[in-house]
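REQUEST ID: PR-0412
SUBMITTED BY: lab tech R.K.
PRIORITY: routine
TASK: structure prediction, single protein chain
INPUT:
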Amino acid sequence: MEISRSVPRCTTTTPGARMPCSLQALVPTKARQPRRLTCKATGGRVFFFFYVLLGLDAQRGRAAIAAPIQAPDLGNCNPPDLPNTAPDTNCCLTSGSGIGIIDFVLPPASSAPLRVRPAAHLADAEYERAVALMKQLPGDDPRSFEQHRAYCDGAYDQVGFPDLEIQVHNCWLFFPWHRLYLYFHERILGKLIGDDTFALPFWNWDAPAGMTLPAIYANRSSPLYNERRDPAHLQPFPVDLDYNKIDVIIPTDEQIDQNLNIMYRQMVSGAKKTQLFMGQPYRAGDQPDPGAGSVENVPHGTMHTWTGDPAQPNSEDMGNFYSAARDPIFFAHHGNIDRLWHVWRGLRPGNADFADADWLDTAFLFYDEEARPVRVRVRDCLDPAAMGYAYQDVGLPWLKAKPANRSRRTPAHAAGALPATLRETVRVKVTRPQVSRSDKEKEEAEEVLIIEGIQVVDHFKFVKFDVLVNVPESGGDGASGYCAGSVAMTPHMIGTNKKKGSMKTVARFGVCDLMDNIGADGDKMVVVSLVPRCGGELVTIGGVSIGYTK
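STATUS: complete
OUTPUT:
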């Protein structure tokens, strides 16, 4: 465990300076030997739970332009490519015969009272009992915890596009897929304890009361316990939403304030338009990873890594997507992600989600509490109340955490050119197409800082870098106030027919408020700093530009 004391976040010091993250970033990257895992099936049953099946109505063409991604061929699975240090993982699950898929139907509005999901630090023993029963189910039961753990990335290709994997991260499918993942998990748990009002707890790390690991997950005798969590991050150690694989030792009140500032940036100032919050469109024939929304990078990705055990070879369990669902806290973590989607829609009622039919008609296949395969579309999961659940009101303290305006200072000198690998800080000048726009113009179109051609040569390592605008040469009144955001990528597994875990993506940051706050609204040219925090030697940036989104 590396420790840094009182180091400001999303900041730079001298040109070329960087912060170490772990031993993986301090030694040369070694090529790993692929390990092919076999498909598993028992008794002809369908085991395919919680890996997404993205569907398309049968009457629509196989390779239609601008169409939802079709359901993959389950018999054509790409076993994951894992390092030899990783535990065995069953990813390829085969469909049986004679099991009919049913279409999801929203429950009648008056069928039952809303299930109110509680904050995890307030959850009761019924949750533990439900998880214990789930863990007792035989492994070939599609409702079992074993099958919940079977989620993998990159196992299936898009129908008609054998060189393109199906991916629900880093795109507009991130929020709806996780909402449904939790919904059916919750329904199964309720069925096991005979309580149709059972509600899944959520870990509200965005509010001070939830900014530690919930105690209910720390009891070694509990079915909620997982030995593969960072032992240094137990209570009362506060969470760090900007985690760089370094524990920054600052007063707890200061850490809380930093967390709230990050939440304001990710939920409010940097997420004014749909694509900035939800992620980029992803359709049939598209390359995976077109671009994540604000919350998916931070704090979703950083909290994954903060929870995982750094002593494990690959920061298992929560620190790596292939193993994350082995940890029961995975579901509480994503419960808060789901809650934040609902909160954001309330903050932006006139600018929420996509009207695009190719998003709304995308379908997923899950198993329900009766072990039946169910097809459900994005359009069916937009309203939690219609699905029969709500969240306990725990407040939104970050709404009042708007950062103070920064004094205008001379930016640090641009040093570097793109494309470049982030072995050190790179600073480039970027031209703004428009300056000093009116409030109406800013409301209609958000100014967006675009980091293009992000390529990660090994997506099985945690990667994080910060993006700052006009950070002062002298540091001045706190460089964190010049931060547009961060790219934080939790490691993914990949299929053996892919290119050794390499991935490409784009990052977008809304910066209207930032330009105002740092006194740069009238600047024709700004200096953008790309600051590696973890795994920078694995990342190449193609370019930086500024555009606008309505």
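NOTES: Residues 174-192 form the longest helix (19 residues).
REVIEWED BY: pending
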